[in-house]
Amino acid sequence: MEKRGEEIRDPGKGSGFSRREFLIGIGIGGGAVVLLGQFGVHAIDWARSGDPVLKMVLVDYAKCTGCRTCESACSSRNRPAAIGGKELPGLGNPRYANIRVHSFNPDVDVPNVCAMCADTPCVNACPVEPDQKTGRRALYRDPATRTIRNDSGRCIGCGSCARACASQRTGVITPNRETGKPERMCTLCGGDPQCVKLCPFGALSYVKVRRDRKFYGLGPEKVAAQLARNWYGTADFGGLK
To answer: Torsion over CA of 114, 120, 125 and 130, rounded to 10 degrees?
Structure first.
């Protein structure tokens, strides 16, 4: 499967319907599925522990058009601008978004966002010794928001968290090119995710994490391969990594 450039596409342009649009129109294809991972023993223990409920952003791929509104909404909220001493929404440059839309050929668009994993393989991979007072490594789960955060003052930029995320989950964590420190961990916008609120097609929703959902832990390439089989019946994945 060939990965397309991540250009913004206008679904209203052109005449007729693509095969994907036709299949979606008659109700065939991927329903609401989630970008999460295969949790093991640690997750089962967590599920029985009574810990606070984890929440995450769920994607309905049949509704996603690849418009990238989610990226702009995320960037605007999480990269605010300071003007005249006031904090205002940022410009919304998709480059700085924590959610990223991956576009493939044949036509499949896969938004990739932090899975809010119960067993936190990214945190477990962090080699920084836990703080004696807080018990936190450089990468940790925020007790208030339940999201994954990074202490840049302690982080050594080794990339271990990103490699763990890529090999065990969705691969959303991306090291900064200059510092090597992790980025793109979803903040959930403090419990009001703007990507969900502003998606013009209702393709995103804010729900409880469930480890029994389909495509648990698959990265965008694997999700796209499965959707392409469902929508187009193709087995040609040339160029798929």
So the answer is: 120
DSSP state of 50: T
pLDDT single digits (tens) 154-202: 999 999 999 999 999 999 999 999 999 999 999 999 999 999 999 999 9
Q: How far, in Å, CA of 186 to CA of 78, rounded?
A: 9
Report the run of H or E that residue 43 belongs to, with start and end: helix 41-47
Residue whose tokens read 């648990």: 216
Burial class (CB in 10 A: 0-12, 13-18, 19+), 173: buried
Beta carbons of 216 and 125 less than 8 angstroms apart: no
The CATH architecture that domain 2-6+18-80+89-118+169-177+188-232 belongs to is 2-Layer Sandwich (3.30)
CB 130, CB 78: distance < 8 Å: no
Query: DSSP character for 96?
Result: G
Backbone angles phi, psi at 10, to 5 degrees: -95, 110
Provide the edge-to-edge strand list for the sheet that holds 100-105: 2-3, 100-105, 108-112
Cα atoms found within 13 Å of the Cα of residue 235, Cβ hemisphere only: 0
